[in-house]
From TrEMBL:
PANTHER family, per the entry: GTP PYROPHOSPHATASE-RELATED, RELA_SPOT DOMAIN-CONTAINING PROTEIN
Organism lineage: Bacteria, Thermotogati, Synergistota, Synergistia, Synergistales
Record protein name field: RelA/SpoT domain-containing protein
Sections of the chain in a coiled coil: none
Entries under Pfam families matching the protein: RelA_SpoT (PF04607)
SUPFAM superfamilies linked to this entry: Nucleotidyltransferase
Gene3D superfamilies found in the cross-reference section: Beta Polymerase, domain 2
Limits of the RelA/SpoT domain: 47-180
InterPro entries xrefs: NT_sf (IPR043519), RelA_SpoT (IPR007685)
CDD domains linked to this entry: NT_Rel-Spo_like
GO aspect biological process, one term: guanosine tetraphosphate metabolic process
Length: 364
């Protein structure tokens, strides 16, 4: 009976596996975006879904009673690991997670939990989270609203501990295991102290750094004034997209078509309206400079991130996609709407014309 149940769950997980992979990619990019706004430097950010074989083996090797619902009770079907440089950055990311997601505290290990003196080793922060209701109600996120995410937040030294300590402490010899555990305790303390020292050195470098003064009788060269960042206007937006033979406009129009949005040849009037709506949503999303827009577009172009976001929108609305009209400006409109929702959700989208722009793309 138990074996048959595990097989049924395994078959069901195979059907859901692609959804969990997609969910990992979406959450990885969301976390990356949220963390970047805190000016935290990330060493690495990884995401993965548990493979069907791993899922099946975990349930098969489980001792005792099986979970009532593994899709709800197995916490790490989808995992994102965030590796950081300093403990203070870990605290910042922990705050972001607490503010942006629903946290399952009984299944999580917070920074307060790590203060327990009985905890062995240099443990890291772990959060089991899900989407908040406001994000889960969005069409592009609603299919993920019941999914859990296992988030590991570590410094690089905590990652070293997590990677090495299981290999060392796996011995079955009681005497040897006791000796190794004492040695591991000392290593754990050294790693924790090293993390604290790195943090101290960084803060000290900030506090005590002084400008280098020129040697006596050496001419003082006045620094060049920084180039003023151009304010984003509708004309500068058009100029950016139409430069180099409409390179940017054509790239995003082609990307939307490759994702699966219907091909169409827009009339000039449609393109002008698309430009206007893109300018409106950029202004509402507080992308107010040419350099700011360039930075956003570069971010969307790297690692196919923009293509993945458009694919997510396409998948969410696939049943109604035949009426959509996505030109180059409209494709970027959708990216801004998706990636800057945390800013846009607090704006009057109806009054600013953002909703009208969205409905127009859908052919409504």
């Amino acid at each position: 009976m138990q074996t048959r149940k595990i097989e049924e769950w395994g078959i069901e997980y195979i059907k859901r596996y692609s959804l969990y992979q997609e969910y990992c990619r979406r959450m990885k990019h969301l976390l990356q975006d949220l963390i970047s706004r805190e000016s935290v430097q990330v060493y690495a950010l990884e995401g993965w879904a548990k493979t069907p074989d791993e899922f099946f083996n975990e349930l098969s090797n489980k001792k005792g009673v099986l979970p009532a619902d593994p899709f709800r009770d197995v916490p790490d079907l989808a995992t994102v690991r965030i590796l950081l440089y300093f403990p203070s950055d870990v605290m910042t990311v922990e705050r972001v997670i607490q503010e942006e997601f629903l946290v399952d505290l009984p299944r999580s290990t917070t920074s307060k939990d790590l203060e327990d003196p009985d905890i062995f080793g240099y443990k890291s922060i772990i959060y089991d989270v899900s989407l908040k209701s406001d994000r889960g109600r969005l069409r592009e996120w609603e299919k993920y609203r019941d999914l859990k995410l296992h988030v590991q937040v570590r410094t690089m030294l905590q990652e070293a501990w997590a990677a090495v300590s299981p290999e060392i402490s796996g011995t079955t010899d009681v005497v040897t295991k006791g000796k190794l555990k004492r040695k591991l305790s000392r290593v754990s303390a050294l790693l924790e102290e090293a993390d604290e020292d790195f943090h101290y050195l960084r803060e000290a470098a900030k506090k005590f750094s002084i400008p280098v003064t020129p040697e006596k009788n050496m001419p003082i060269i006045e620094p060049m004034a920084p180039v003023k960042d151009l304010k984003l206007t509708k004309d500068s937006l058009r100029q950016l997209f139409e430069s180099n033979g409409e390179e940017i406009y054509s790239f995003w129009a082609r990307t939307a078509s490759e994702v699966g949005f219907p091909r169409f040849a827009p009339e000039r009037e449609y393109v002008e309206d698309s430009l206007d709506y893109l300018y409106r949503i950029l202004d509402a999303a507080e992308i107010s400079s040419v350099e700011g827009l360039k930075s956003f577009l570069e971010e969307m172009s790297s690692d196919n991130r923009g293509e993945e976001q458009l694919q997510t929108v396409f998948s969410a609305f696939e049943d109604d996609i035949s009426s959509w009209k996505v030109d180059g400006y409209s494709a970027v409109f959708l990216l801004v709407l998706n990636m800057k929702w945390d800013v846009l959700q607090n704006k009057d989208l109806l009054g600013l014309g953002i909703k009208a722009g969205s409905d127009r793309i859908k052919g409504s």
